[in-house]
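Hey everyone, long-time lurker, first post.

I ran two proteins through the pipeline my lab uses and got sequence/structure pairs for each. Pasting them in order. The first:
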Amino acid sequence: MAASPLSELTILYDDSCGLCTGAKAWLATQPAFIPLRFVPAGSDEARRRFREVRPDELAVIADTGEVWMGNRAWIVCLWALRDYRDLAFRLTNPLLSGMAREAFSVLSAHRGSLSVMLGLRNEREMEQVLRKVFLPACRPERQ
C-alpha cells in the first residue's frame, strides 16, 4: 500500500461473529498511525454509506475512497497499526501474499466454527449470557 494522505479508515465487520468482534476489539486497542472507525457491515449506516460493498466480507474503506476487501482489507488493517506495519509490508511480498490470502480464506470460511471452538462471542451473545446471571438484591443497610 502506497503512502497517501489518509485521515481515517472505516472497517466494516460482521458484528454477529465472535471472531470478527474479537478482531475488532483487538484492533481498537492497538496504537495506530491512522484512526480506525468500526461499522457493523449489516448496519443501516453501512448500507447507506457503502452501498457498493458486499456485507458478507471484511472491508476497509479509506476516506480517500479506496476500498479493500478480504485478505487485502486485513493487510490494510495491519498496515494502519504502529506495531504491525512491517508485517503488512512483508505479507504483500509475492513469496508470502498467496499464503496470506489462503490463511485469510480458511479463517474466514470457518469463522463461525472457530468462534464456537474458541468461546468467542459477539456483543449480542454476551448480553444474552449476562442477562441470565442471577444477581441477588442488595439488602438495605441497618441503621
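...and the second, right after it:
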Amino acid sequence: MWSDQRLLKLFGIEHPIIQAPMAWAQGSSLAIAVSEAGGLGSLSCSLLSPVQARSELQALGQHADKSFNLNFLCYQPPAPDPAIDSRWVERLAAYRAELGVEQATLPGARASGPSFDEPKCRLVEEFPPRVVSFHFGLPETALLERVKRTGACVIASATTVEEAQWLEACGVDAVIAQGAEAGGHRSMFLAEDVTSQPGTFALVPQIVDAVRVPVIAAGGIGDARGIVAALALGAAAVQIGTGYLLTPESTIPQNYRAALKNAREDQTAITNVFTGRPARGIVNRAIREIGPMAAEAPGFPNAMSAMLPLRMKAEAAGSSEFTSLWSGQAARFARELPAGQLTRELAAGALKHLRNLGRLRV
C-alpha cells in the first residue's frame, strides 16, 4: 500500500503516521487508540511522576501486540543565577498583583520535566517499547547504549541539517525533521537562532539528501494532502501532534479546546515566556505582553517556576491567558474525532491521493 516500507517494518506499524508525544495533553489512551488504528502511538514521559509513568506504561503493556513510542527530554539545566531569577520574578510582579497571587514561584517547577536519567532509563528497560524518541538532543552515551540494548529503535528530532547529521552520527534509527510550523517546544540543540529556523517543506528534502536513515516530517501536517506532500519530498513517515488535540482521548481542558477551535494560521507564535525555551503556541495575553521572546526569562525549565502560579490562578477563574496553549500552524485541521478513526481516515485519504496521482499521465 505504501511505497516506502522502511519505517513500517522498523516500527511494526501499518501506516506511516506517528502521533506526536505531547506532555500535559495526553496519556496512554491516545497512544493506544493511534496504535490500534495502525499508526505509532506515542507517550511523553518526561513530566510524569514515577507512579504516573509506571501506571501509563502498564496500560500500554496491556496492548503488547502493538508498537509504541516513549518520548523523553534531554537537556542541561542552566546554572543557578539568583540575579536572573529575581529579574524574572520582578517582571511578573504586576500580574501577581492583578490576579491576587501571593506565591512568587513554585519551587517544584524547577524539578519538573527532568532530563533523561538513570531512573527513566530503568523504566525503559523494565517496559521496553518498540521505539524511544528524544527531544533536545540525545542522552549521554552510556544511557543511550542501554536503551539500544532493550531492542528499541531510537529516533530524535532535528531542526536543521546539521542537527540531523549529528543525530545520525550518534546512531539513531530515524530522524524527525521538525519544521518551524510545529507546535510545542522547538527541538533545537545545536542551533540557537529561532528566527532562522526553516519550515517543514524546506527542511525535509534537505535532511533527506543529507542522511541515510529514514526521515519523519513534522510541523504543519494535519490532513491527507500534507502527508502526501511530505512523502513526495522523501519523508518515510509523518508526525502529527496538533491534529490529535481535539480528539476525545486528548486530556486538554475545555478552554484549550475552545482556543484551538478558533485558532487561525496566523495566531500562533514561538515564545519562551512559559518555560524558558522556544515553543510554538496560540497567542494569548502572556505572549503578547511579556514576549513572545522575553530576554528576562530564565533558561528551560526555570521560567516555569514563576509562571505557574499565574497560570493556576487564571485557570481557576476560567482564563487561559497565562496558559501555554501549544499548537502548530495547522490548527484548522484538528478534528473532533476519536483518535483511531482520525488515524484511519488520514491514512485512507493519503492513499486515495497517491492512487489518483499515480493515474496522472504527462
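Reply from user beta_strand_b:
Welcome! Quick read of the second one: The longest strand covers residues 68-73. The chain is about 40% helix and 15% strand.
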